[in-house]
Design goal:
About 65% of the residues lie in helices and about 0% in strands. It has about 170 residues and is mostly helical. The chain has a single domain, classed as Lysozyme (Orthogonal Bundle), CATH 1.10.530.10. Helix 7 crosses helix 8 and helix 7 crosses helix 9.
C-alpha cells in the first residue's frame, strides 16, 4: 500500500514539475477542436457510442478511453505505428489477440472492445492507479513492473504520455 501511494505521489510530482509537452494552451485548444469535430461525424458518433458501451461493460472511465484514443491514433481507425500497433487504440498484435474479441484490429468496434478490455485488466492489476495504467498501456505491463521493482518509479519515457492522457481526459465533454 505504501509503495502504491509513493508511486502515485512521485508520478504526480513528476507530471506537475515538468509538464512541458502540453504547457501551451493552444495545444489543448487544438485537441479540443479536434474532438468536437470528430463528435460531429457519423464515425465519431459510432466511436463515442462504442466507447460508452465497452467502458460501461468493463467499468472503465470512458473519458480515459477517449484520451488514450486521442493520444494513440488521433481517432484514426486505420492508424499503424512504426512498431506495428494498429487501429484506434493502437493495439500491438499480441495484446490484441490475447483479448480474444475478434480478428481485425482495424475494425472500430473490435479495436475498442479489445482496448477497453485491456485497460480493465491493467486497472485491476494496478489497483485503479490510472497513472500506472496509462504508463503500462504505453510501454507494457512488464516494463512498468520492472521499473517499479528496480526504481520504485514509472518508466521515465512514459511521463509525457501519462501527462497527455490525463490532460486530454479533461477535454472530453459529454
Amino acid at each position: 500500500m505504501r509503495k502504491t501511494i509513493l508511486v502515485m505521489l512521485t508520478t504526480l510530482l513528476l507530471l506537475l514539475s515538468n509538464n512541458t509537452a502540453l504547457s501551451q494552451p493552444a495545444d489543448l485548444q487544438a485537441q479540443q477542436k479536434k474532438v468536437n469535430n470528430i463528435k460531429q461525424t457519423q464515425q465519431g458518433k459510432e466511436i463515442f457510442k462504442l466507447v460508452d458501451k465497452y467502458s460501461e461493460q468493463y467499468k472503465v472511465d470512458s473519458k480515459f478511453v477517449h484520451a488514450v484514443i486521442l493520444v494513440e491514433s488521433g481517432y484514426n481507425p486505420n492508424a499503424t505505428s512504426p512498431c506495428g500497433a494498429k487501429g484506434l487504440m493502437q493495439m500491438m498484435p499480441a495484446t490484441f489477440n490475447a483479448r480474444k474479441v475478434g480478428n481485425n484490429p482495424y475494425d472500430v468496434e473490435t479495436n475498442i472492445h479489445a482496448g477497453v478490455k485491456h485497460i480493465a485488466g491493467l486497472q485491476a492489476k494496478y489497483k485503479g492507479n490510472m497513472y500506472t495504467v496509462a504508463s503500462a498501456y504505453n510501454v507494457g505491463g512488464g516494463a512498468v513492473d520492472r521499473a517499479l521493482k528496480t526504481t520504485g518509479q514509472l518508466p521515465k519515457g512514459t511521463k509525457d504520455y501519462v501527462y497527455r492522457v490525463q490532460s486530454y481526459k479533461q477535454l472530453i465533454a459529454f
